Every structure is written in C-alpha cells, then in structure tokens.
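PT: before anyone asks, these are the final sequences, not the draft ones from last week. 502 residues across everything. Please model them as a single complex and drop the result in this thread when it's through.
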Amino acid sequence: MNAHIGLRETEPLVAGSRAGCAICLGLAFNVCSAANAATPPNVLTPLRQSGHTVPARRIIWRGPDMHDVVPVICSGWAAAIVMLSDGSRQIVSFLLPGDMASTTMLFDAKPYCQVEAITEVRYRSFNRGELKAMLFKHPALLERFTSAWVDEKTRADQLIVDLGRRTADERIARLILNLLDRLSKLDLVRGEPAEFDFPLRQHHIADATGLTPVHVSKVLSEFRRNGLINISERSLTILDAPGLRRVAQMR
Amino acid sequence: MNAHIGLRETEPLVAGSRAGCAICLGLAFNVCSAANAATPPNVLTPLRQSGHTVPARRIIWRGPDMHDVVPVICSGWAAAIVMLSDGSRQIVSFLLPGDMASTTMLFDAKPYCQVEAITEVRYRSFNRGELKAMLFKHPALLERFTSAWVDEKTRADQLIVDLGRRTADERIARLILNLLDRLSKLDLVRGEPAEFDFPLRQHHIADATGLTPVHVSKVLSEFRRNGLINISERSLTILDAPGLRRVAQMR
DNA sequence: CGGTGTCTTGAATACCATCAAGTCTTGTGG
DNA sequence: CCACAAGACTTGATGGTATTCAAGACACCG
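LR: through. Structure below.
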C-alpha cells in the first residue's frame, strides 16, 4: 500500500468546493512537475475528481463498496488496515499527504483492506480509468508513478523483515525513523532536534508493529526514560537520533 | 517480490544454448499469450537474453553487482531473501517457474535482497531496458505484467498480516496453502489427496514465517500427528485440506 | 569415513501477551 | 459549566508462545 504520486497542494483549499479542487489539481500537477523539473507546466488537463473532508477515525475507503475510485490524501494522516475476523488489525501502511492508498488500486478492484482517517483528512477521489489513462499518456507522470510503486514495495518488504525478524524495540524505533524520513521529504519536520506532528495513538503503533498497545506503552516509556524521544501534545521530538538509530539498526 | 509474467517453457531447453533460448523465448511468449488469448501469436520479436542453470543453494542474483539484468525463473524453486547483519534471514517471497524476482526490478536498480536457488534452477536474464520497452509496446503483455504486480503486492501484504498477527501454526498452514494455490495454477499439483514436490527445508519455512527451525519442526510434527499433512521424499501431501484450512483461517 | 546438512526432542529461558486496576484526558449532553 | 462516559495511557502481576541451548539420530556427499 501507499504510493506517493505528488498530488499535493500548495495552498489551503475550500473543502468540497468543486472549482477549488479543479484549480488545485492543476496547481498540484504543476507543483509536482516543478519539483521534478520533468513535466512542462500546463500540459495536463484537469481530471474529474471529488474532494472530501472527513474527521478522524472515519473510514475513507472500504473494500467491498468502492470500485472505480482512487483516493489520494491531500492533508492529514490515514492508514491502510487489514481487519481480521477476531477484531485484530494490521496496519499495512500509513498514508501521508500526497499518497495514493496503493498503486495497485489503479489496476485492481478487489481490495482486502480499508483506509481509515487518523487525523482529520482531506482527500480527493479520482476515477480510476481516467487517472490511469492520464498517467500512461504522460511519460513524466508515469515515471513518478513507477517510482512511487517501487517505494511502496520497498516499504512493504522492509515491513515484512521488521515483523519477521526484529524485536519490539527495533520495530518501534524503525517505525519512528521511517516516518521521520517520509515527513522530512514532505517538509513537515521542524527544527533541531527534529520534531514533527505525531497524531498516532499507541494502538496505531501497535497495529502497525504487530504488538499490543500495552507493550507499545512500555517500550515508549523506556525510550523516554533513556532520553531517545519525547512525545507530548501529539508531537514527537527526536532527542537522540544516533541512539534511536542504534536501537533500530541493531543487528 | 515475485511477479509471474508467464514466461514459461513447454519443452526442455538445452541449458545455456543461445539458439535454444531464443527459440524458447519466442515459444514462451506465444505460450503465454495463448494461455491468455490476448496477444496474437508471433507479434513479439525475441529479446536478447541469456540462459543459466545453477545448482541448489547458489545465489542467482545479488544486490550490489547486477544492475541491468532481470532474472526470470524457468524451472525450479528460488527465494528472494533479505539478509540481516547478524546472519538471520527473511524470505520475502518464493519464486516459482514463470516468476520474475520482482516487478520492481523493471524500474529500480538498488536492491535490498538476493535471490537464492532452492532446487536446481534454470533461469534467464533479460536486459532491463529491452524488457521494459517490450512490455510497454505490447498492451497485452503490459496487462499481464500489471496483474503480476498486483498479485505480488497482494501476497506481500498478506505476508505482513501473517507475520504481524498470526501464530506459528497459522503462518505455516497458510504458507503451505499459498504454495498449493500457486502450484496448482502452474499445474504442478497431482492427484487426490493433493500432493506436490516440496523442496523446502525446514529452515526455509522458518525464514519465510519469521520462526526458528526448531519451532518449525515442532509445528510440522504436530501437523503430521494430527493427520493434516505428510512430508516425505521432498513431496508434500495434504491429507486433510479442511482441517488445514481451519488451522490457517482460525480467527 | 569424516564432514556437513537436516531433522527431532527436551529443558530452560526470554519476550511479549493477557489480565487487571487505576489515572488522566477528551468529548458530550444535560 | 459540570457530570459522566468513553478513550487513552500507565503499571504490575501472571502466563503462554516461541527462542535458545544442547544433544543425538540420520542421510548424503566428497
């Protein structure tokens, strides 16, 4: 899951406003291409799409019902989650601004997971066929898309290794460092020592690392005791980056 | 990892023979398209490629050195493995005949894992650029390729769930059932009760399920005691499919 | 024939889950 | 604005699953 395709906004958008979205989409594509110096500006015609804003904890995209729409996150955090019949959950990937839930959504309509908002989330739904056609028409966009796909797969494989072969401390440290990485590419990390918005509840961390919320609490407390990180007011500060990396890499 | 792109052979091939490979590749593509009734026969020009045969346990494709080649398995079993610095290993996917190590190899040159032969393996290496160009030139092939990609990602996400949220028994039962599924699509499963070649050592199962060989041994013994499966002479028989599924699905 | 790889089994241990109780925060309706 | 409920987090006690350690049986190969 989780493909960053650079459909980000530079300015706030009137939520749900169709005109606003259309403008923004054009903007976003230009921003995207500008950042990459690949696509000349204004080559892209706006796609049909619909903007939405949902509060935290709402389900954005549920397996069975949505067929032809591909959601792209504009702002906020979300998660792609596989639900098991006993109520336990596995977060397959976190979705940050600019992410499509999964690159596979462009091709496949049978999903095995749902997308849930963690914070308030603004997102846009694209028509799958149109989005696909557009990507294949513009090489620069396709390039971006395939690179998003490679990133997504790399992260998935990394997660497999983490869940299969690493301890609780390592998993949690790596989760934090991965988020740090992704967020700093989005320019969402502030200052020195590094600090960023951290809307995850401990149960989110548990669902992502294959642990229980109780154990996550214990590990995070230990991290704090050791002066590695600090979490307060939904914000995470990395106090000792080398130390945290040491915990994460160990082995 | 692991993309089945239908580059299989119908007949044995003189190992390493360039002419043989070229013929076989044409054959293979036709077989592939015939199986799908999508590509008209003979539309495809043969690609440059090289055939290889390696014994079990040999490394086929190592991260750092191979840049522009994409290996495709012709016969035998292989595994894509992530090595950790303490010597522990995680198998990210098993590669069966017709599988490309990963669809991402078409686009990305920086690999984080190696491909190892489990049995003797025949495989072919394609030039990445040429293979890519060919896929994008022929819509039917591209279609096949994207579907391989979706399968690959689906399996990766399933593995994430298994490693994150399932017990040892469940993981091992699911591994067996997944292999049964894939092998039966390749027509490599015989008879009733279902039975197939099973070259995996217990340490392979351990590396794939995130367990230790010792514990794999105990679980398999229990499966046998309960009359679920039987393994002998590198062949696995599923004696009680519903029972095994019950163990696998549980929850 | 020794060496290596594979598998099995038992005992001790470690890591993480489960259970439980309590604090604190957040949100909601009266 | 307060009261109450629900959610979030913490901490300690206990237990289970899987690991680690160890030793031995067996097959295969050079």
